[in-house]
Amino acid sequence: MSLLQAILMGIIQGLTEFLPVSSSGHLALFKILFDVNTDTGILYDVLLHVGTLIAISLVYYRDILKLVVDGCCIIRDAGYNVIVFFRNKTGKEQMAYRRVINSSYRKFAMLIIVSTIPTGIIGYFCKDVVEMASEILIVPGICLIATAVLLLIADHCKDGDKLPKNVTYTDAFSVGIAQGIATLPGLSRSGTTITACLLAGYQRNFAVKYSFLMSIPAILGALVLELKDATDLAVSGTEVVYYVIGMAVAAVVGYVCIKTMLVIVRKKKFTVFAIYCLLVGALSIGGYFYLA
User: Fold this and answer.
1) What does the record give as the reaction this protein catalyses (predicted)?
2) pLDDT tens for residues 130-153?
């Protein structure tokens, strides 16, 4: 992989991760069409996602800090309640339990934890399938057309009013399943999860925030899996530099696109992206049969 290819893939990742046109699908198409070989499987793809994770962190740093603190408090109070349970069973004096979910942000943190469970399960068991699918031109094509359908659905969804206090854990689990399925190349993660949120009745701005923030544990989990499998890979110093540059480009471009996405969702402007995904998907499918 050359430096130019690394930069171009960083731009593609930054643009397509937050705009609802599928970063994985475009990266897969780019690598297939231009015969890009990173020699490290999908490790570089995951690192590019880390670049866009940095962009999310810059935009939503206040929310992230609050969610981390409240998440730790949830674990602390849940652990305390376990201790109280056993003491109440064995002792004479009855101790009071702590209310674990006692604020809107704690509920928000818990919802993200619930969403992460199905995403992690699907991502872990379907990792090899996703890698193979990324090498077959027809798969991103079909998934891009599916993305187009999802975006048209999102544009015609009624405006919901659910904020953390109104969202159920069943809603969160369903959105997590959607995110897990969206690991397929060509299915837009943001488009799929935002559509799932809107169908569940989420308020539109909250749907965008939820979609972006719930990607953080998913990206970190994918990075851990890739680094675990990458211990035997031989990566040169030059490749490391290219990877870092690509991540930086993805972070900068991604930051701009998050701001753009907030306006798009608020104004229901998904139709243009749906048409784009439909055209690129059709071209991909046509290219597959042409090259076959």
Assistant:
1) di-trans,octa-cis-undecaprenyl diphosphate + H2O = di-trans,octa-cis-undecaprenyl phosphate + phosphate + H(+)
2) 878 878 889 989 999 999 999 999
